[in-house]
Amino acid sequence: MLVSAKEMLTKAKEGHYAVGQFNINNLEWTKAILLTAQECNSPVILGVSEGAGKYMAGYKTVVGMVNGMLEELNITVPVALHLDHGSYEGCLKCIEAGFSSVMFDGSHYPIEENVAKTTELVKLTNEKGLSLEAEVGSIGGEEDGVVGAGECADPNECKAIADLGVTMLAAGIGNIHGKYPDNWAGLSFETLDAVQKLTGKMPLVLHGGTGIPEDMIKKAIDLGVSKINVNTECQLSFAAATREYIEAGKDLQGKGFDPRKLLAPGFEAIKATVKEKMELFGSINKA
Ligand code: 13P
């Protein structure tokens, strides 16, 4: 059964580790992530962007697929199904469809409007026992066509949003989605430290997990990050493994064109990436 992300993140914050959010795109992604979480005895959060939800034929399809896998693959570790960077309307749709967690990304609104919309969603998610992630300070890079500059959040605005009673808070600390450019200045630990001091026990979320050096990940966890989002890295490892298979001409040998064979190396590559991240984040055996 899907669970809210509240308990797993409270434990992570107390235990000084982080739970990975891995974004899903299709059946192979979902199965690879769930099986790896089970093998690693780790809690996990499946992230679904609005674009990926549409790609997978809608939120109800996603809920059906994930619930089916939890049962048929005997997944017993805590799993949350979470809307990533949702609009207000997207949150309502996912709640209705059976997601156990949603993110409302109001970071592009003036703070008053972010507060007002987040307040409404706190009420709604509390009534249903779901977890809610809010965001202050936009995360840079491109995701679903939305490009942000990677700003640093105002710690006082973070406190204002945290005090509304959200479950977890994403604060921009110079992080961006996708690959980091060569001239990237790194994470702003000064901002993270200031946010953590004002928000106390609130689990903080680090977006743009792809390509952040290991020492920065560890320091971010030390400073209160309890959820780390990874998307692009699984896409890159899937693509590289698939390319290798095709370039070796394996799709042309025997029944190598069968999608169950053609997609197998990519599937294994996602599993390896997820395991590596779970080790780095410290969530192994924390289910
Ligand atoms: P990356 O694609 O950079 O790993 O970021 C994922 C993310 O933050 C999803 O919200």
Structural notes for this entry:
- Helix 2 (27-40) packs across helix 12, helix 7 (155-162) runs parallel beside helix 8 (189-199) and helix 10 (232-247) packs antiparallel against helix 12 (264-281).
- The model has no long low-confidence stretch (mean pLDDT 95).
- Strand 6 (141-143) and strand 7 form a beta hairpin.
- The chain has helices at 6-15, 27-40, 50-55, 59-72, 88-97, 111-128, 155-162, 189-199, 214-222, 232-247, 259-262, 264-281, and strands spanning 19-23, 44-49, 79-86, 101-104, 131-136, 141-143, 146-148, 168-171, 204-206, 225-230.
- The protein is built from twelve helices and ten strands.
- The strands form two sheets. It has an eight-stranded parallel barrel, surrounded by nine helices. A two-stranded antiparallel ribbon has the order 6-7.
- The longest helix has 18 residues, at 111-128.
- With 287 residues, the protein is of the alpha/beta class.
- The structure holds 1,3-dihydroxyacetonephosphate.
